[in-house]
């Protein structure tokens, strides 16, 4: 009996996927539920498990775009498992194709260098083959060596490889969305700076007891998420989005967080962040980050956010203008924390400072709302005990 395996729907509105990599080969024996392929949609990369055990026949090539519901392989259910053979282990990476490898070597009509000339060339880091000698039979003289200059942009004989690799469907879709955002929104960015010392002090005092009690670290994301939730309530336009001629207002805060996964940047969503405590935010951030890292994140977990937080600071970014995650109207960029001299009560002191940036769609959000929102975030981060913890640290941290 032959089973036709069809492409399942990865999520609503997705009609086509791309075969990113086959994890088995044509003619292999596969076990039921064994991952046999990785498929890319325009929102996520998912594994395709075998529906039954048997001998597999592949009906699509890596890189092929196939419609949801199309047959991608056949499984012969009567096929017997070869004696002593187990299902093949998954490939970890699709094979790379080197389009062109060129070794280029340029030589000059030259002879040998005199001992004096060779010493000068060695000091300059120039090989005799790069110099055209003016002496007898092309011999390189001392004057030739003195006047010689290093090659500026000429090939030196080393390998000069180039690789042409098709971008995944997910990456191509991300590229299209980013260009669309730049072209179709009135995007603007406003900046501010945050003195992180109050948060540093809190984390230093309570991070160990917090982790011991809850099993997760007390990071920066919980402070920023709760500060953003408060600011979105104060400035609801930042939590809205355009739909044609209509503006959609939300009475909830679903916060998208940018995390790094094996297939690139992913943006899972913390649902109803307004109902979460510090422990709740940190637990959810950890859960989503692990699922993204392990390639288990689903399309549903990455759709429907109302506002995004991205942290370029983990990679060392000092300042940036983050691009809006459509159809949202705003995104907050966090950056690295650097000790800087600042004025406090008329005195210059050293404080850990983070620059923050809010990019927003000016069609929806006016300057007053955008600046006010970012100031509200700054106020909450610089006064976390009063504003985010209601002057009760242990209750807020559930210690």
- Strand content of the residues, in percent? 25-35%
Whole-number total of structural domains: 3
**The CATH architecture of the largest domain:** 2-Layer Sandwich
Q: What's the CATH H-level superfamily name of the largest domain? A: Chloramphenicol acetyltransferase-like domain
Helix content: 25-40%
Cα Rg = 30 Å
CATH domain topology of the largest domain:
Chloramphenicol Acetyltransferase
Give the SSE string: EEEEEEEEEHHEHEHHEEEEEEHEEEEHHH
Compose a concise summary of this entry.
The chain is of the alpha+beta class and 399 residues long. Helices cover 26% and strands 27% of the residues.
Q: What do these coordinates show?
A:
The chain is 26% helix and 27% strand. The protein has nine helices and 21 strands. Helix 5 (220-234) crosses helix 6 (278-293) and helix 5 (220-234) packs across helix 7 (367-382). The longest helix has 18 residues, at 197-214. The model is unreliable at 87-109 (pLDDT under 50).
């Amino acid at each position: 009996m032959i089973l036709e395996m069809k492409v399942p729907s990865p999520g609503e509105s997705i009609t086509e996927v791309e075969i990113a990599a086959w994890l088995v080969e044509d003619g292999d024996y596969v076990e039921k539920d064994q991952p046999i392929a990785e498929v890319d949609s325009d929102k996520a990369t998912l594994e395709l498990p075998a529906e039954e055990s048997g001998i597999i026949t592949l009906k699509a090539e890596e890189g092929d775009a196939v419609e949801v519901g199309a047959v991608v392989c056949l499984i012969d259910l009567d096929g017997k498992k070869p004696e002593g053979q187990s299902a093949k282990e998954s490939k970890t990476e699709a094979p790379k194709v080197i389009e062109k490898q060129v070794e280029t070597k340029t030589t000059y009509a030259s002879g040998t260098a005199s001992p004096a000339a060779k010493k000068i060339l060695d000091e300059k880091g120039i090989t005799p083959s790069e110099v055209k000698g003016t002496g007898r039979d092309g011999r390189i003289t001392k004057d030739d060596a003195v006047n010689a200059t290093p090659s500026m942009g000429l090939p030196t004989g080393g390998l000069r490889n180039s690789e042409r690799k098709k971008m995944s469907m997910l990456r191509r879709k991300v590229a299209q969305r980013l260009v669309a955002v730049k072209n179709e929104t009135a995007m603007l960015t406003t900046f501010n700076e945050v003195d992180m010392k109050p948060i540093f002090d809190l984390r230093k005092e309570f991070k160990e007891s917090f982790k011991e009690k809850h099993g997760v670290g007390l990071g920066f994301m919980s402070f920023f998420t709760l500060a953003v939730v408060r600011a979105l309530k104060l400035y609801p336009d930042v939590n809205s989005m355009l739909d044609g001629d209509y503006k959609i207002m939300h009475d909830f805060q679903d916060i998208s967080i940018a995390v790094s996964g094996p297939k690139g940047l992913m943006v899972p969503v913390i649902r109803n962040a307004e109902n979460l405590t510090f422990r709740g935010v940190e637990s959810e951030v950890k859960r989503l980050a692990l699922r993204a890292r392990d390639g288990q994140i689903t399309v549903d977990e990455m759709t429907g956010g109302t506002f995004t937080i991205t942290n370029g600071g983990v990679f060392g970014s000092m300042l940036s203008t983050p691009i809006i995650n459509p159809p949202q109207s705003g995104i907050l960029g966090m950056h690295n924390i650097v000790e800087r001299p600042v004025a406090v009560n008329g005195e210059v002191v050293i404080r850990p400072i983070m620059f923050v940036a809010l990019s927003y769609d000016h069609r929806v959000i006016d300057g007053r709302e955008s600046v006010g929102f970012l100031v509200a975030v700054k106020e909450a981060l610089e006064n976390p005990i009063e504003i985010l913890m209601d002057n009760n640290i242990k209750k807020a941290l559930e210690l």
